[in-house]
Amino acid sequence: DGYGLSFGTGDAADAADRLTISRTGLATFSAGINLGDTTLSNYKEGSFTPTIGAETGTINGTNIVGRYTRIGNVCHVWFSIECTGVSGASGAVEFGNFPFTSSSIASGFNTPMVVRYVSLGSAVESLVLRMFNDSSGGRIEEQNGTSVTNLADNVQNGTIFQVAGSYRV
To answer: What is the mean pLDDT of residues 104-126?
Structure first.
């Protein structure tokens, strides 16, 4: 449009823009940004709608808010879900529908995330969300110091889970 600036490669027959700066100052790098030994070619941010459930029984969610920022092969997420329609819930609390599928890290390991809760049926020592390998979901587990317990047994209508963390995609 005459107000931007483009830098390209190649001759006139196969020229390709590599860097374009719009008249508003937005720079677009068609092949990514080289940061030394790594090329950053993926940056996204937005919202997502995570799902919640129980290993056995039912847990539904309302007042769901989910946000993410992906920088390269790492996705940073934050979400909040209020539990409703809790009926016969037992076993693990399960989450899904994360914005990107996780990569596979070492066998037997999952990516942990920080969990905050409000109004669980009983006090717990600590909670962790484990994002499963090659998955778009995982489980929230209660860690009681020596083992993992069945958290869904303590979920009630009005329980709120807030989760923040990062995982490799």
So the answer is: 70
